[in-house]
Design brief:
The chain is an alpha/beta fold. The protein is built from eleven helices and twelve strands. α6 runs parallel beside α11. The longest helix has 13 residues. The termini are far apart. The mean pLDDT is 93.
Length: 267
């Protein structure tokens, strides 16, 4: 059972994991150095723990304790209890989603273990916005994606903002970061996947046409600004587009991911 520890000093060193959450650069360095990530909100904290991630600690105001009592009972990690005003001073923002938890990261699984048995994988190349990554995970989890593959430069799906936007989908949807990005497409082809790249290339066909009749699909989306790199755009087995109304060339990548996952899952 988690140990309840009342905190009265916002400078208490035991709260270091939760300090200055608005500072993205600082948080990236701290979380990488200490191998941790944060979950925010009762549902997300619960999904993280149920997903097998070990808690380092919890932070919550007294009124939040009952909703996560079963999660706290199942953990040996300390639970720091403090007022909402004090929590805001520590974190730098209004903690309104019920609770926070600091959890241990796990090593990225191998590509082979993530795609084993999968028929539909979502591939994200260089998405740098945590909100878009979280939204893509949420759409993927809701619309039939079996796994997500990330390029080395993709934003961290375990960063607090990504986890929050994705409503904890990162804890239930298998994923990994692919270090050998240059040869990732040939590797996927070797495992029987047909790659379908969303792009505005001249030879792109409507997505519904591109995915028709395929068994194992790797649906590839590129960065927010420039889209896919030329290697991935040109090396994909098929290039596809989501047809737009006149005068509009494309959707935001998060919206495109949702539409593309819906169409692909119903091929």
């Amino acid at each position: 059972m988690a140990r309840l520890i009342e905190i009265a000093d916002p400078a208490d060193p035991r709260l270091a994991d939760y300090r200055d959450l608005r500072d993205v650069q600082l948080r990236r360095a701290l979380e990488a150095e200490h191998g941790l990530f944060l979950a925010e909100g009762e549902k997300v904290v619960r999904r993280a723990v149920e997903g097998g991630f070990e808690a380092r600690s919890f932070l919550m105001a007294p009124r939040w304790l009952d909703g996560l009592a079963d999660v706290l009972d199942a953990s040996d990690a300390p639970c720091y209890v403090l007022s909402e005003a004090l929590a805001e001073r520590v974190t730098g923002f209004h903690v309104h989603r019920g609770a926070l938890a600091s959890l241990h990261r796990r090593p990225d699984p191998s590509l082979e273990s993530v795609i084993e048995g999968a028929r539909f994988v979502l591939v994200l190349e260089d998405l740098v916005d945590h909100t878009n990554v979280g939204a893509a995970f949420r759409s993927g989890a809701a619309l039939g994606v079996d796994a997500v593959l990330l390029s080395p430069r993709c934003a961290d799906p375990l960063y607090r903002r990504a986890v929050k936007v994705g409503m904890g989908a990162v804890f239930s949807l298998p994923w990994t970061r692919v270090p050998d990005w240059y040869d990732a497409l040939p590797t996927l082809a070797g495992h029987g996947f047909t790659s379908v790249a969303l792009t505005l290339a001249p030879d792109a066909v409507p997505l519904e046409e591109a995915v028709a009749g395929l068994d194992r699909i790797a649906l590839v989306l590129g960065s927010e600004g420039h889209g896919l790199t030329s290697r991935w755009e040109q090396s994909a087995d098929r290039r596809a587009i989501i047809p737009m109304a006149a005068g509009i060339d494309s959707l935001n990548v998060a919206a495109a991911a949702a539409v593309a996952c819906y169409v692909t899952a119903r091929r």
